[in-house]
Amino acid sequence: MSPIRFTPRILLVSILCAAASVQAFDWGSVVNQEKLNKVLQKASPAAASTVAPASPSATGAGLGGLSEQDQVGGLKQALTQGVETAVTSLAKENGFLGNAAVKIPLPASLQRVEGTMRRFGMGKYADDLTTSMNRAAEAAVPEAKNLLVSAVKNMSVSDAKNILLGSNDAATQYFRKNSEAALSGKFQPIVVNAMQNVSLMQKYDKFAAKGAKYGLVDAKDANLESYVTQKALDGLFVMMAEQEKAIRANPLQAVGSLAKKIFSAIKL
Fold first, then answer.
1. In a 10 Å sphere around its CB, with 0-12 CB exposed, 13-18 middle and 19+ buried, how is residue 257 labelled?
2. Do 76 and 153 meet the contact criterion of CB atoms below 8 Å apart?
3. How far apart are CA 232 and CA 20, in angstroms?
4. Do 179 and 156 reside in the same domain of the chain?
5. pLDDT tens digits, residue range 183-228?
6. By residue range, what is the domain housing residue 31?
């Protein structure tokens, strides 16, 4: 059989057919970079090499061009901002009481009898007690600011680097792990003083006295000093984590120029 001769007419027909098949291809089905590369490789290996690779996930590679001093300084700027914003949001009327994410409920031992007391028309005592606990936290939380800012200043270089490349709440988890016990010890006397200012124990005594008539409440069931202290710290950490996450997601929210630079570099 004689070989096929590719005349100009045959070549032109072949090109037109190839073009038609490319136009008929449903490009909407190419949903990711890998599929697109495979398609282009079949058409032309050279064409595939011109397609830019997918952007890598954020690994902090952009930090390489920044000094260690800038990295640590930027993180401390951002954390200090987070502490101040969290404290400000909580240290006002209804900062705890009006925020479902941090509102302090009755202790579990009292929650068990709250429903019964409400059925007996004593819901007012439960409401007053809940309000007083939250008011005590709102009054006490500003005093935590200096403690937390001091913890930021004393953070080591290695801790700072681990936080920079950690999860959205890496700094908050760091504070919980390394500072919560010390913070609790220093914070509790502040809470106790705030509890006195809002007559919290008197409200509890009224609650307990009413519940005791029905054998519902034992005064030893609730250590309100420790309970309110821990819940106030929990609420503070929740708000700090929200601030940290927001700055990581949008570095331009950071106040300091170094903080903007560092968290922008992490996203590269």
1. exposed
2. yes
3. 69
4. yes
5. 888 889 989 999 999 999 899 888 888 887 777 776 556 688 999 9
6. 8-48
